[in-house]
TrEMBL record:
Main location: cytoplasm
Domain WDR11 second beta-propeller: from-to ranges: 486-826
Keyword Iron-sulfur: no
Ranges of residues in domain WDR11 first beta-propeller: 22-318
Residues of the WDR11 TPR domain: 991-1162
Organism: Eleginops maclovinus
Protein name per Swiss-Prot or TrEMBL: WD repeat-containing protein 11
Location(s) in or outside the cell: Cytoplasm, Cytoskeleton, Cilium axoneme; Cytoplasm, Cytoskeleton, Cilium basal body; Cytoplasmic vesicle; Golgi apparatus, trans-Golgi network
UniProt keyword Thylakoid present: no
GO CC entries: axoneme; cytoplasmic vesicle; Golgi apparatus; nucleus
Region (Disordered): 1217-1238
Superkingdom of the organism of origin: Eukaryota
Amino acid sequence: MIPYTVNIKLAARTLTGTLHLQNKTAVDWGWQGLIAQGCHSSILIIDPKTSQTIQVLERHKANVVKVKWSRENYYHNQSSPYCLRLASGDASGKIIVWDVVSGTAHCEIQEHSKPIQDLEWLWNQDASRDLLLAIHPPNYIVLWNGDTGTKLWKKSYAENILSFSFDPFDPSNMALLTSEGIVFITDFSHSKPPGSAGKKVYIASPHASPAHTKPAPAATPAPTGAKKALNKVKVLITNEKPTAEAVTLNDCLQLSYLPSKRNHMLLLYPREILILDLELSQTVGVVAIERSGVPFIQVIPCAQRDALYCLHENGCITLRVCRSTTTQEEATDPEQSTHELLYDLRSQCDAIRVTKTVRPYRMVICPVNENSAALMVSDGRAMLWELKAHTGRAVTNQSSGLSPLYTPISFCGSPLGTNQKRIQDLSLNSMIGQTLIAGEALPPSSIQQEVQLKFLLTGLLSGLPLPPFAIRMCPPLTTKNINHYQPLLAIGTSNGSVLVYNLTSGLLHKELSVHSCEVRGIEWVSLTSFLSFATSAQNNMGMVRNELQHVDLLTGRCFAFRGERGNDEPPIEMIKVSHLKQYLVVVFRDKPLELWDTRTGTLLREMAKNFPTVTALEWSPSHNLKSLKKKQMAAREAMARQTVSDAEQSSVESSVISLLQDAESKSETSQAISAREHFVFTDTDGQVYHITVEGNTVKDGARIPPDGSMGSIACIAWKGDTLVLGDVDGNLNFWDLKARLSRGIPTHRGWVKKIRFAPGKGNQKLLVMYTDGAEVWDTKEVQMVSSMRIGRNVNYRVLDIDWCTSDKVVLASDDGCIRVLEMAMKSASYRMDEQDLTDPVWCPYLLVPRAALTLKTFLLLQPWSGTFTMDITQVDYNEKDEIKGLIQEQLNAMSNDLKSVLQDPELSLLQRCLLVSRLFGDESDLHFWTVASHYIQSFAQARLSTPDGQSEGTQPPPQNHLDICNDILCESSYFQKFQLDRVHLQEVKRSSYEHTKKCADQLLLLGQTDRAVQLLLETSADNSSYYCDSLKACLVTTITSSGPSQSTIKLVATNMIANGKLAEGVQLLCLIDKAADACRYLQTYGEWNRAAWLAKVRLNPAESSDVLKRWAEQLCSPQVNQKSKAILVLLSLGCFYKVGEMLHSMRYFDRAALFIEACLKYGVMEADDSSNKLIKSAFLEYARLLRSLGLREGAALWASRAGSAGEQLMEELFQGEGSMPGSVLGEDKVELGQESTE
């Protein structure tokens, strides 16, 4: 017979449980679309869309305290591919940078031995994306190269640093939250450590605010606490160190810059969130919690809209959206028009039940779409909430005073087509429209609908409960049960329930509540049923309540196996089921053992009082079932023959045999035969007894005297002709029963807790568990195969062991995890692509680099056919079938909504580029296409409305503008309104002379002279600058445009600038409308951002365009190296040809070709002699790129549009086609290509 082997594939994996307190901050949701979460010393990688754990990384020896995904803010090609890179820091100060797909470490970094406080990848320069900034306690900031692990620089500060936050608009600014206040650094750069110690500011505790003092007298209706509190909390930030009693500083939980608008920062306190305007260092908004409200733990500001996700102590996530400061409200209610940023509660999810052990730890939100959040709970649960938008006119509650939110009118950056498909919930900015600012009218368009936001729980991952665990694997796979075998692992827990996990998928198969106290042991009696026992705590007599339950998995039926017995008796020590699953031995601590029949559930024998105390017991694998069956078969055959007369013998022969086989199979299921089985056990003296059981007769067999070298025997294992004994002193004794030899081996590891033989015929491997770890032995050779020991190669204690297949072991450990390991017992990170996942996961990062790029190209453009297909096999794509299969799996994993939108012929090229960059989580692509798509469309519209040709910098229609989170890239008109609105707010909030002075300066720059004069005249007479300010006020009011006064002022201004008074000189120049000169001076002195700001708010389009172009040149210079930012600036000026050239010269070939294609489509770039060279070379390079990916049809198509060089490429593409029938294919393609150029 051919040996019949079946490989039931069990991946090495880790089932994780509850989190450690140190894991609290270790969670991150990356642009790649996956969540990383620290759990003790391992890191889980979770896919939030299907809520599955798809990888567990194990290498840290201490608890993981921080994890950070690398940013995707770079152009992706084959040399810098889409890859899953994660940095993690642990409590011993070690940082590991992982390649997540293969589960291996790129590099390991160690500086000090204290827990890492914070980690962040630098994302803002084009030179390198490997830089990792870390805080090493107490006060060091170190910049590492995360690829090689080399230290670039290190800087220490005076106070302990708790965390840091980068300014998303200006990478040279960062803020450190220290134990005493905040340190602002303005000269951060990757090339050298910050030079200065930073500007230190102290935060006066907000508890001085009236919100926390006694309520107002009842005569006046008390205004809501939070709103009034704010008008009174004037200064919160001071440069002087506050007095000791005034401050309990460290209750500031978190600081972060707002990514939705420049120079704003939020500070989080348990009961309020403060929004600061950093230009004034002044609070401009507050979100406070009423007295009875639940305090905050954490807040995450959004970039796409001015909104905050807040996590509260009861696990409730709330979304607050900034209220529009439109002018309509002010007229209705003068009381409400106290200017302030108000964040209205728009949605909240359900809270969780918080107990001593269950509390919310952290929340993360999806950085790409900002419309889903994940909540990590201390018991190992991950709750995945999605924000859903419901449109339609809801009954707005007038008393709540909330103005309605509207849906945006565009989808993926373009106005919606009439019957175009869309996904409302694609991202936050496709769910709610922009926050309006003062001076803007509501768009009258009828398409906008009111929208209600709701949180929906879309996924839940739960971990194992708290240890200790008792584990047992179901009976092994055999040739008989191969058709219906499932590798199930039963886990008994401390609260009395039994969890059954399916180890192929790693998912919970059933959770059964079986006992009322801790489960001590489990034994399977068939593939679908098991016995488990639990013992309650001892009473003062040393007696307990024993529960022994029989559980049927298929039905969930569960009954007490020992009937009424079990109250007030000594505790059960162990239960052992015989090899044929016929008998069960129950061993008690101080009471003779019981022998039961498992099939009928009857007690066969309760041993006599003088029966020896059992220390270890094991059933023998030998039995007489085969010989019994032969005898029975023969007897049956004889009986059948007697009943049939000889004459009919031959005709009946066959039917008799089938009858017999039938009878036999029936008898097997009902097991009427009772085969003889034996067990051995040892007593306290080490004597070995041998007992035979057959039916209901029990016979005592031979006794073997104790072995002098062994101590008290703790466990026995028996397989084939090998019997192994383990004792409390760590000796193993191997008996060869055939050769009658015994061999003792001291392991010097202390008490042998358990020994188990591996399943499988002839497999003589043995798994041994000690108090401090485990070993695998080969009993044939009598030598150790592998070993693990706490403190040496692992940092957890092993609680229980078992084999799950013939070559894999499963260990339960005290860190709450259960690990399936190879026999070598090394750590369990595995390759993600070798895994069997129940649901397909959309994550292009899991593909090999080439395949990910192919998938992207495939989704972006399929111009070779009239329709858009989602089946890669329909495309001429020469690649290995397995890779094709993987790409197709990714396509199949997309949601149906997405597929239908991508296949919709109405989806324009620009929308498609935006959608695909969102799907891939490609940060750099997303920023580029957002700005490009907006300005290509607005310049195209402007050209239609002004037919006299191109006028650079013309303003697009006002209702559709870029979000303010794009800052300087926004349209000037909108940007100006925003700045005025902001100064107005600052004015209301100012509380000191310093603030007033700053406001007046801003107003002068913005050209608001009347208001500025009012502020200047407010200066009190005892102020040292009183005289100066009064004269300045006079000057501002009397400036006339006469020649001499202008020239004088200009001369004074230039002198001031030359003598280091830059700001004052610039102000004077702005007074006489020489803002263009002012910008030039600012740029000369390196104030590039300030110059760009001034150009935006003061200059006409042509002048402003000059200033910004100079800035773009500076950004491209090798010292600054921010070409990608320069490209965005040029896009906002409409310099599309220059952008095309730059993309091409930077070798961003696919982006360049698609961008030029879009420009030609929208008519903002003409294909004439000047531009043809660029267009053709861009298309040619894209064709080459497609050819290198293996997409030949696409390559042929683009090559056919690239002129003479393209024809050459076409020939190369189709020259090796000797095998193909003729070159019809080639001609065909060329025709297709020509059609599309026409």
